[in-house]
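Exam revision sheet. Question 4 asks you to relate a sequence to its structure. Input first:
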Amino acid sequence: MRRTISLVLFVFGMPATAFGQATPSDSQTLQALLSEVRELRQELRSSLARMQSGQILLSRLQTQQQVVTRASERLDVARSNLACAQDRQKRVAMDIKRLEDTLRGEENVSQQKTYQDEISRLKPELERSTDMAQQSQTTVFDCEQQLRNEQDKLSTLDNQLDELVKSLRSPSKQ
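Answer key, structure tokens:
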């Protein structure tokens, strides 16, 4: 009988002891799991925020690239217009010089009058083409400045994107 009582006490006493010891262990495990879940959630939020920042930066980078492309195209057009204006200016100046040289060698009064009239007609055109060349030169300068500004903005965005990519590669440093 003594053996039976010992056995009953042993059988019923053991689980109570085991439950008493298991509760703190389970509680500690649950706390550790809860803490880890919270850390993972925070890390996930951080990663999502960085990804959203990356998407925004990519969008801004693409938009800025389009702005740079348009500025470059405007500069090309301005340079082309400048070249045309300078060619026109040179051509008119050469025509005037040729007519003046011809006028000096001409003895026929009627022909001299014709050359002088032609020179008088070309001089205002030379002034217009000179003004146009100067305006075109100013436009080229402005377009170059604008292109440099837009390229600087693009470079800044590119650097920001590079930094973000580096931060995504090493999330432990965040």
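Marking note for examiners. The chain has a mean pLDDT of 86.
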